[in-house]
Amino acid sequence: MMTLLPLSCMRARDVLAHRALEDADPVVALAALVPAARPQVEATLRQLYFPTPPPELLEPEELRTAREWFHAAYRQRLTAALETLRWTWSTALDPPRPRQRDAAAYCPRCLDQFRAGRSRCEACSGQSLVAFPDPAAS
Ligand SMILES: [Zn+2]
């Protein structure tokens, strides 16, 4: 191909990668091919496990049911694919290390940390916060 069509060899990598990855989920392809992209893959997993709660009044029941079904199906497919890569995805859901002594809770979706007195992450449309595990309990 390179001898007959030298200009085509510039695109050979694109053509071969497209065919090799055409059935792959983009997140799985990213996890398999770009180890440095782990934070982006983990963020995608957290978004699937902790979807942004939409305004209740604006979402019809059928849409909410379809959205929840899609998230569950995609979550299952994605985690199964990551497990075939021997990718330890479950650590993406672990609590972060507290950045401040007075950090009392974190947002499971964006991992922002909050002092006591807050119960929701405004950046994530009101996602409920999760209290840090009590260090005295462990
Ligand atoms: Zn958040």
Compounds present? zinc ion
The oligomeric status of these chains comes to single chain
Shape: extended
Flag low-confidence runs: none
Helix share, percent: 25-40%
N-to-C span? 63 Å
Number of strands: 5
Indicate the mean pLDDT.
86
Total of domains: 2
Number of helices: 4
Sequence of strands across the biggest β-sheet: 2-1-5
Helix-and-strand structural type: mainly alpha
The radius of gyration is 20 Å
Largest sheet: 3 strands, antiparallel
In what range is the share of β-strand residues?
5-15%
Order of helices and strands: HHHHEEEEE
Structural commentary:
It is extended, with a radius of gyration of 20 Å. The longest helix is centred in the middle third of the chain and has 24 residues, at 61-84. The chain has 4 helices and 5 strands. The strands form 2 sheets. The protein has a 3-stranded antiparallel sheet, with no helix packed on it. 39% of the residues lie in helices and 9% in strands. The mean pLDDT is 86. The chain has 2 domains: 10-93, no CATH class; 96-138, no CATH class. The chain is mainly α and 138 residues long.
Report a brief summary of the structure.
The protein is mainly alpha-helical. The chain has 2 domains: 10-93, no CATH class; 96-138, no CATH class.
Keywords:
138 residues; mainly alpha; 2 domains; two-stranded antiparallel sheet; 4 helices; 9% strand; binds zinc ion
Outline the secondary-structure elements.
Layout: H1 12-21, H2 26-33, H3 38-49, H4 61-84, E1 103-106, E2 113-115, E3 120-121, E4 127-128, E5 130-131
Antiparallel strand pairs: 1-2, 1-5, 3-4
Bound molecules: zinc ion (ZN).
Residues 107, 109-110, 112, 121, 123-124, 127 line the site of zinc ion.
